[in-house]
Amino acid sequence: MKKYLAPILALFCASQVLSAQTENREITAALAESYAELQSTYTPSFKVDGTNAKVRNVILLIGDGMGHGAVNAAMYANGGALTMTNLRTFGLVRTQSADNFTTDSAASGTAYATGQKTNNGFVGMNTEREPIPNIPEYLTPLGYACGVLSTDDLNGATPAVFYAHQAARGEKEAIWADLPASVLKFASAGTQSTFESMPLATQDAIKKTFTVVYDPKDPAVAGSERLLYLPESVHLDRGDYLPATTEMAINYLSQRGKKGFFLMVEGARIDKHEHSNELPETLAEMLDFDKAVEAAVRFAEQDGHTLVVISADHETGATLLTGGDLETGFVRVSFTSKSHTPMMVPLFAYGPHSRDFAGVQENSDVANKILQLLGAKK
Ligand SMILES: [Zn+2]
Fold first, then answer.
1. Distance from the CA of 340 to the center of ligand 1, in angstroms?
2. Residue 15 lies in a domain
3. pLDDT (tens digit, 9 = 90+) per residue, 190-200?
4. What CATH number has the domain bearing residue 258?
5. pLDDT of residue 36
6. What is the model's pLDDT at position 174?
7. 272 CA to middle of ligand 1, Å?
8. Distance 1 CA to ligand 1 centre (A)
């Protein structure tokens, strides 16, 4: 019987591949090759890493679409090192949403922001379409100052889940309109022109509750109590916006939180370039995100009571590293999808209690661990 098994198995496998191809028209095998511009990385001392010291501040960095392929490609393209891969605590995150094996950024973001799984497309709402509290809403009454920062528009799913409650992520105007009633002390994301395209009533309500600036050096920043900084661009022509604003947000929030602060930083465009299978731009976004990671880890190193958690909302592109050269930084990548995938995503952590994030966990677990460490009762 055995000799018949192999051809039968082969036939079975071939037909599985065929049906997968007809089911998922997104399956591709786009080969791409690139070099990246080498940049320095930072390695902290690890003095406070993994200790039981009190956590006063948490910086959560989310690389949208940042799966293993993106981390591998960026690390090897950067001569074998990233600040995030210099860290010692590593975990894996499962990203399934309540209604789909493959999540979108709204459902996974909501899990990261609230500790609860929900349906794809939902922003800060449970599967019953009821608003559920997010980390800033749990922490602000306890004396923490909270903020978000993203290279997406402010209404993008990942920043939105930390301040808005809407059942459809596409409801751009409704999401912006949720900002004034939010508890955020600091927000920065795209863009000036997106803000100016909102209804005047929304713009007025935001201006009444936030100091709105278009320039981080605006003198109004220093005396403000709540700040909305809107850059002109969040695309690759944005310069060092992401790392520089990470520093700015840390500085702003650490001066305003009586008990501490919580900051979410999103590198939003890794995902967008993986969707279109563009390798050089994916690498550029990964390396820029790693500079924001560096800013967070440098602060954690000198502060001693700051926990940094770096992960992703989902993988995008079924991005695979298939070849390269460590010396020249040349990498060869195969994108085998133009969509999100259900694969687990990597997590890196640094600071006191970083080890709590090792091992395999759900995206919702990450939020619940953060809330517990900061003394919030759910
Ligand atoms: Zn996406």
1. 6
2. no
3. 999 999 999 99
4. 3.40.720.10
5. 82
6. 98
7. 6
8. 47
Q: Classify residue 6: in a domain, yes or no.
A: no
Domain that holds residue 142: 26-373
Burial class (CB in 10 A: 0-12, 13-18, 19+), 225: exposed
Q: What angle do CA 366, 56, 301 make, to 5 degrees?
A: 90
Distance 308 CA to ligand 1 centre (A): 24
Rounded-to-integer distance, Cα 163 and Cα 177, Å: 10
Distance 346 CA to ligand 1 centre (A): 17
The rounded distance, in Å, linking the Cα atoms of 84 and 82 is: 5
Q: Specify the number of domains making up the chain.
A: 1
Query: Is-contact 309 61, C-beta < 8 A?
Result: yes
- 291 C-alpha to ligand 1 centroid (Å): 22
Q: Which residue has the tokens 């992520």?
A: 169
CB 138 within 8 A of CB 111: no
How far does the centroid of ligand 1 lie from the alpha carbon of residue 218, in Å? 33
* Residues ≥6 apart with Cβ < 8 Å to 2: none
Ligand 1 centroid–CA 244 distance in Å is 25
Q: From the CA of 32, how far away is ligand 1's center (Å)? A: 19
**In-domain check, residue 378:** no
Report yes or no on 334 lying in a domain: yes
Per-residue pLDDT at 33: 86
